Amino acid sequence: MKYLATTLGIVFLAWGVAVASEEDFLPQKVTITEDGRKVTVTADGGKTFGKVSAMLETTKNGTDRIKSILLTVEGKELVVPKEQFDDLRDPLMKTVQFRSEGGRGSGPWLYLTFQLAKVDAKSASDRPRVYIRYQNGKLMERGIRQPQE
């Protein structure tokens, strides 16, 4: 019985590792303007993506929305379409960061991520996280990871 419990523990641990996210946080530098309306983040994407950067700007009319996102990957500038962020309210600009993931079969992913404010959030893990996704030389549809409920 002792060995069964140990074996099951190892199986569940291995399964947990297999299904867990494999996102890597890229070493980065974040610069925010004094008024907090523009954020620039640069990171080392390694051999896969090279130097990556993004500039995000929010509106000035008090609605706390994103006005524009410019993403640069492998020296190529990509203007993120408004459809990927126009419906988002209250972006937390200090949470902007780059992440990457190996991908399965289709190639590696690069993510530009940031969180959205949520009134009843007790911690960072209680807020939605937006993923602007890049793979194989092009922007993909954005994703939003909702907090666990």
Describe the structure.
There is one protein chain. The chain is mainly beta and 149 residues long. Helix content is 15%, strand content 44%. Strands 1, 7, 8, 9, 10 and 11 form a six-stranded antiparallel sheet that branches. A five-stranded antiparallel sheet has the order 2-3-4-5-6, with no helix packed on it. A hairpin with a 7-residue loop joins strand 4 (51-58) and strand 5. It is globular. The relative contact order is 0.15. Residues 1-20 have low confidence and may be disordered.
Task: Provide a short characterization of the protein structure.
By secondary structure, this protein is mainly beta.
Salient structural properties:
149 residues; mainly beta; 6-stranded antiparallel β-sheet
Fold topology:
Elements lengths: L1 H18 L4 E2 L2 E5 L5 E7 L1 H4 L1 E8 L7 E8 L2 E4 L11 E11 L7 E8 L12 E7 L2 E2 L3 E3 L4
Antiparallel strand pairs: 1-7, 2-3, 3-4, 4-5, 5-6, 7-8, 8-9, 9-10, 9-11
